[in-house]
Write a structure and sequence with these properties.
Length: 163
């Protein structure tokens, strides 16, 4: 019972952080809210007894991707300056789309019969994940790392002084 209450509390805080990402006027504050979302997801993984995924969430998303996003924002003058716009003019369209999406998702969840199947976790599950990263999924893993590197170099090129 305590675990369920803790799960619902963390889920609610994570949703509020996600709302902060969408509604923050300052892009830097939105990135900080995004770090909170990533941390909330990691806690949810840990509460669901998926400790490896929780730790991977912290190391990869908070430690690498969120740091990259924060540095890219801080290096971009046009994003952090006073002239950056607070909102675009499509807030109501986006709100309508979100409400429609959640109503559709709720209807699908009600209509879908979920069958619970308990499966034993293999003893070498983490070793299998590691072998997947260096074996079958090595190309997408490396492409993602090169893409992040290109994004960081692009942010630095945009932020540097023009002569």
């Amino acid at each position: 019972m305590v675990e369920q209450i803790l799960f619902l509390f963390v889920a609610a805080v994570t949703l509020l952080m996600a709302l902060g990402v969408a509604l923050a006027r300052n892009l830097f504050h939105a990135a900080l809210f995004l770090v909170g979302v990533f941390f909330g997801i990691a806690v949810l993984f840990i509460l669901l007894e998926a400790e490896f995924l929780g730790m991977a969430q912290i190391v990869i998303y908070i430690g690498a991707i969120a740091t990259l996003i924060v540095f890219a924002i801080m290096l971009s003058k046009h994003v952090m300056g006073k002239e950056a716009g607070a909102y675009n003019g499509q807030l109501y369209w986006a709100l309508g789309g979100v409400v429609f999406f959640f109503l559709l998702l709720g209807w699908l969840l009600i209509q879908m019969p979920f069958k619970v199947v308990e499966a034993a976790v293999p003893d070498d599950a983490i070793a299998q994940i590691g072998q997947g990263f260096v074996g079958h999924y090595v190309v997408p893993f490396e492409v993602a790392s090169v893409l992040l590197l290109v994004a960081l170099v692009g942010a630095i090129m945009l932020a540097r002084e023009r002569n």
